[in-house]
Amino acid sequence: MKKGKIIAIVVAVALLVIIIVSGVFLTIKSQIHNTVKGTQTTEYITQKAQQVTALTLSGHISPKQERDFTVTSKELSEMKVNDGQQVTQGQVLYTTYNEANATELTELKTTLAKDQRDKNQATQKLQTAKTTLSKIQKDDDGYSDAQDAVTSATNDLDDLNDSISSTQTKINQLSGKVSPSITAPFAGNVTVNYDNNGSAKVTVSSTVMQATAQVSEYDYSKVKVGDSITVKAVATNNSQKAVISLVSLHPVSTNSSAGSKYDVYATIEGSNFIDGQTIKISIPQNGIVIPKSSLFNGKIFVIKNKKVSVKKVVGITQDGSFVVTSGLDAGEKVVTNPDSKLKEGEKWPQ
Questions:
Q1: Which of 134, 135, 194, 260 could form an S-S bond across to 251 if both were Cys, CB 3.0 to 4.6 Å?
Q2: Reported pTM
Q3: Which helix (H) or strand (E) holds 324?
Q4: pLDDT digits (tens, 9 = 90+) for 193-213
């Protein structure tokens, strides 16, 4: 029994030692873990700020101006241009003949000639009346009649002068309408088409071209007159800088699902494009885009010269990102997961 008791005591002591050692080990391990945890740093992520993606529109090239002229075979006197010909502003396209105006002009000229003859007779009549009056004394019996003759002849001559002046004005106005010339309103290319009756349609298309595209109502606010754009031909990759000249106020199409579309115009200089060519228009957008998570209490943290710099920025949340309108430049390195531990002037990397 004494031996068994000794063994029991040894086992109990051994267990106690094991328990004490285990407790000490766990306490030390916990202290080490807490120490490590307290000194552990956050793994920060950085990203370069990007310019907002440019708005891209599809469109085509067309003449900036087009003008159609039609003339019947009866009115056409002579066609002065050929199909496909280039013309300058003011160049004669064709001449016409207006039979009704020609007839009226002939009648006016006949009237004018008669009035001219009558005027000559009236002038002679007035001269005779004045001569007769000069030979009569005021107290003679025929003096009053002679005065009346001079007055009457004077009135007749005045009436004829008025008639001649009016007729001449009408002749001057109508002369240009008998065989008027139709001229090109601007420099361009001419298309001439005749129908079966000999009537002609002449179309003048300006040499100055324009880019035309359509913008949706959702992007309408992103496009403004005066914006600089890049126009690129899909087929040739030819490109050119241009400026938006007009954004239509009224939609050219309306769809309940796709929304309304509005025309956008820009004048194209040079010869990089042809009529009807398919193009892409790139319109740069203002603003710098960063992840929304980059903001911490209204501020962002930028890494510059291996140091942390705190910046206040102005902008809006858009499509899950934050678009900075003031306070940040494209290309700056921004911390995307900032916290309260980051401080102004802190060295980077930590």
A1: 260
A2: 0.60
A3: strand 321-326
A4: 999 999 999 999 999 999 999
Compute CA distances 52 → 227, 242, 310, whole Å.
15, 20, 22
| Cα→Cα distances 89→65, 94, 183, 186, Å | 13, 14, 8, 4
Q: 229 and 242 in contact (C-beta within 8 Å)? A: yes
Q: Compute the distance between CA of residue 65 and CA of residue 338 in angstroms, rounded to an integer.
A: 57
Q: Angle at Cα 73 formed by Cα 67 and Cα 79, nearest 5°?
A: 60
Spatial distance between the Cα atoms of 138 and 39, rounded to a whole number of angstroms: 139
List, in order, residues 6 or more apart from 259 with CB less than 8 Å away. 216, 217, 218
C-alpha–C-alpha distance, residues 291 and 321, integer Å: 5
**pLDDT tens per residue, range 241-252:** 999 999 999 999
DSSP H or E segment with residue 171:
helix 143-178
Q: Could you tell me which residues are beta bridge partners of residue 316?
A: 323
Q: Among 300, 271, 346, which Cα is nearest to 48's?
A: 300
β-strands 66-71, 76-79 pairing:
unpaired
Q: In what order do the strands lie in the sheet with 299-304?
A: 46-48, 333-335, 299-304, 307-312
